[in-house]
Specification:
single chain, alpha/beta, Rossmann fold, 3 domains, 37% helix, rod-shaped
C-alpha cells in the first residue's frame, strides 16, 4: 500500500504544488489549510509523513501541531517556513521535528525528505512492534527474567521477577538484590543472596554462562535455579548479564516423593500385572486416613505392604508402630495397646504409654488382628471408631493398618 502523507499549508498554490510532486512519486496525499482541518484528518487517518507550514491561518501554528503530536509515537513532521529564525528552528528541534525547511522548497529536496521520513517511520513502527512483542513474551514467561549492566544495576525485569527476593518495579536502576534507596532492607539475611551476586559477577568476568542449580532460599522456603548469561552488544562486547530464575520447589518436592516411593518399592519384588495393581492401590491409599485391612497367607508380605502404605504417604516422617497380636497374651495385649498408669495392677510400677498413643500422627500396624479375643476386639475397634475424640488412648491423626492370615471372621 502506498505511503500516506499530509500537507498543511494555508497558501493554496504551494499546497497544490506539494500535492502534485508527492502524488507523482507514488504517495497518497491529503491536504489541509489550517490547524483544525489537520486535526480532523489526523483523527481519521494514520500518516507516514507530515509537511506543515509554521505560520497557518488561525491562532494555532505548525509548532502547536508538533507539540500536540509529541509523545504519541507519531509520524515524522517536517516544518516549513518562509521566515526562518534561530528561535523557531531551536523550538522545532526541542519538540522533535524530523526536519526544518526554508521556502522556497525544491522538488528534489521535498521528495528526498519524504522518502527519508517514510523510511524512518517504518523503522520506528517495526521497532515498536518488536518491543511490544518482546514485552508480551517476557510477561508470559513464568520464570523470573531480568538484566543488569556491568555495574550490577538492574535495567529490566519482567512481572514474574517482582516476587523474588527484594525485586520489584522500583528495583530498576538499583543494585541487584539490594533494597531501593529509602526502603528498609527487610529481614532477608539468607546466605543465597551473596551466592547469587557472586554468580552474576563470575558470569560477566568470564564471559560465560553460570548456573546455580537448585539452591534453597530459607527465607521463602523455596528452591530456585538461576542461570546467568553474558549480555553482548553488536561488537560482541560484554555489557552486563541476563538472568533467568526458575522456581523448582514443586519439582523438587515431586522428586523427593518419587525417591521415597522408590525406596519402599525396592523392598517389594514383582513386576507382574497383579503387583502393578498392588502398587497403584498403595499409592491411592497412602494419604488416606481410612483403616486398611491387608489379607494374605503367611509369608506373602503383609508387613511389607503395611510399611509401603506408611512410607509412601504424608505420615512417612512419623512413627510406624507394629503390634503382633498373636504373640502377646490377652492380659499383656491390653496393656500394650492402651497403656496403663502406675498402680493400675500388680507390677505396674510406672506409667506406660500404649501403642495407640505412640502411633499418634503416624501409622499403627496390627498384625494377625484375627487372633484378637472378642474382648480386645471390642476395646480396640471401639477406640478406632472414637479416634476423632480426645483421650489418652485415642490418637486422632494416626492411620490403622491391619493384617490377617486367614481373613478374620465376624464374631
Amino acid at each position: 500500500m502506498p505511503a500516506r502523507t499530509l500537507v498543511i499549508e494555508d497558501d493554496a498554490n504551494i499546497c497544490q504544488t506539494f500535492r502534485r510532486f508527492l502524488a507523482r512519486d507514488g504517495y497518497l496525499v491529503d491536504t489541509a489549510g489550517d490547524y483544525q482541518g489537520a486535526v480532523r484528518l489526523l483523527s481519521a487517518h494514520d500518516y507516514d509523513a507530515i509537511f506543515t507550514d509554521i505560520n497557518l491561518s488561525g491562532p494555532e501554528t505548525g509548532l502547536d501541531l508538533l507539540a500536540e503530536r509529541r509523545g504519541r509515537n507519531a509520524c515524522p513532521i517536517i516544518l516549513i517556513t518562509g521566515f526562518p529564525s534561530v528561535a523557531s528552528a531551536a523550538e522545532a528541534v526541542r519538540l522533535g521535528a524530523y526536519d526544518y525547511l526554508c521556502k522556497p522548497v525544491e522538488r528534489d529536496v521535498l521528495l528526498h525528505l519524504a522518502r527519508g521520513a517514510v523510511r524512518h517511520h517504518a523503522l520506528a513502527r517495526e521497532a515498536e512492534r518488536t518491543r511490544r512483542n518482546l514485552a508480551a513474551i517476557f510477561r508470559s514467561v513464568a520464570d523470573a527474567l531480568l538484566t543488569v549492566d556491568r555495574e550490577m544495576l538492574v535495567t529490566y525485569l519482567n512481572p514474574a521477577a517482582t516476587g523474588f527476593c527484594l525485586l520489584s518495579r522500583t528495583a530498576i536502576g538499583n543494585l541487584f538484590l539490594e533494597p531501593p534507596a529509602g526502603t528498609p532492607a527487610g529481614d532477608c539475611t539468607a546466605e543465597c543472596r551473596p551466592r547469587l551476586i557472586a554468580a552474576v559477577r563470575e558470569c560477566m568476568a568470564k564471559g560465560q554462562p553460570v548456573e546455580l542449580y537448585k539452591f534453597e532460599c530459607p527465607e521463602k522456603q523455596a528452591i530456585y535455579t538461576l542461570k546467568a548469561t553474558p549480555l553482548l552488544d553488536e561488537q560482541e562486547e560484554n555489557r552486563g548479564a541476563v538472568m533467568t530464575i526458575r522456581d523448582e520447589t514443586r519439582l523438587a518436592t515431586l522428586e523427593r516423593d518419587l525417591n521415597r516411593r522408590r525406596d519402599w518399592r525396592r523392598r517389594i519384588v514383582g513386576k507382574s500385572e497383579a503387583m502393578q495393581a498392588i502398587y497403584g492401590l498403595i499409592d491411592s491409599l497412602a494419604d488416606l486416613r481410612s483403616t486398611v485391612l491387608i489379607t494374605g497367607e503367611t509369608g506373602t508380605g503383609k508387613e511389607l505392604a503395611a510399611e509401603a502404605l506408611h512410607y509412601a504417604g504424608s505420615r512417612r516422617d512419623r512413627a510406624l508402630v507394629k503390634v503382633n497380636c498373636s504373640a502377646l497374651a490377652e492380659t499383656i495385649l491390653e496393656s500394650e495397646l492402651f497403656g496403663h498408669v502406675r498402680g493400675a495392677f500388680t507390677g505396674a510400677v510406672h506409667d506406660r504409654t500404649g501403642r495407640f498413643a505412640k502411633a499418634d500422627g503416624g501409622s499403627l500396624f496390627l498384625d494377625e488382628v484375627g487372633d484378637l479375643s472378642p474382648c480386645c476386639n471390642r476395646s480396640s475397634f471401639g477406640c478406632c471408631r472414637k479416634r476423632n475424640s480426645s483421650g489418652w488412648v485415642t490418637p486422632a491423626l494416626s492411620r490403622w493398618t491391619c493384617g490377617s492370615s486367614p481373613p478374620p471372621t465376624a464374631t
